[in-house]
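Before the break, one more example. Copy the sequence into your notebook; we will annotate it together after we see the structure.
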Amino acid sequence: MPHTGGRAIVDGMTDLRISGPVQPGEVLDGRYRLEELIGEGGMGSVWRASDDALGRTVAVKIFAPGFTDDSDAIRRESEKRLLASVSHPSLVTLFDAHLSADSRSYLVMEYIDGGTLADVISGGPTDTRDAASLAADLGEALHVIHGAGIIHRDVKPANILLRPPLTPQHTFRAVLADFGIAYLVDAARVTTPGTAIGTAAYISPEQVRGQAPTTASDIYSLGLVLLEALSGRRAFPQQTPIEAISVRLTSPPDVPGDWGHGWRSLLTAMTAIDSGERPTALEVSVRGRVLDSEETDSEVTRAIDCEPAATRLMVAPEAAVAPAPPMLDASGRVLTSSPTAATVVVGERPVAPARGDAEPGSSPPANRSRWVMIVSAVALVLVATVVGVALAIGAASPAPPPALPAVGEPLDTHLQDLMNELSP
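Here is what the structure looks like once it is written out:
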């Protein structure tokens, strides 16, 4: 059998039982034709591919050579069963899986052509409405997998794919991806104890201490992701990774107050050092929906406030005074003069003026009172605005960040070992 570049050629296709670098054009099991490398990590690579059997575009995750011992086989099997057991619009759908020690192991998943949250954040912060949608969608996705006894363990912007939005109010819909490092809560199906899988920037305090991650660990990571999405920078911007992971043992991240009470309350709870104080994934989703709704209501209110005054209340000039016809007796003589009648137009509803002794042509008392009330209301708004600006300018400067905690033995050694295992 002829060989080319160390790969055997069988029936015009690359025989992937021969170990070697993955190349565009290779076909997996006579069906999945690799087209473009779209992602790469320590556990393998992700390719955009064509499903020749069904004529659709798919994503293929190929596990790297070397993950062949028992613990890695269990991890790959865990991912296969995990993705097949759950279904949700905010979770990547598994189409096919091939796990074997004799040839390439890979997963075939739906292809989402929308980039990642990391791509969006690299261009600047998201607006609060898109961040609220992120909290709602990803909280719901975590609620589904947590209900199945599964912990993700690596929630980060690069693992959040973006679909096109369903409504014009939003920029995208979030989809949680990469369950390759997820493991099951059931101890009988857990991956190798002591294996640190995750990303240092989003790891929870309990994981830094060497404790096993829980569902609350995913909530902490999601809280840091939301903080980064809203601010455009990582929550712990310390100089070194060791500083960034050690400071979270004693200090929660800073949550700016100008995002509003709802955001401050939610993010403070999600990133609490004590895992028992964090909300559940369902609670995060519900509060995200509330924040999303509040943002929409606020935009409607702002749009109304920005309309020209004439479109909300039309005040026409006082109508011309038309004299009423005289009243006559039986002989045709004029009895008395009719009272002067005037019409005041507000909007499009005529309002009869109050009767009184005012001279013809003078403004009715009710008309003067109305203008006094309008002027007074405008003055009150101006005063309130000036006071609010003065209070904002005089607000105290934020307190300086807390000093990094002193880390001694044996925690110092543990942190260094942890950093060697984690992704940067």
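Residues 134 and 174 are 6 Å apart (CA to CA). Residues 1-18, 183-195, 309-321, 337-363 have pLDDT under 50 and may be disordered. Try to locate both features in your own notes.
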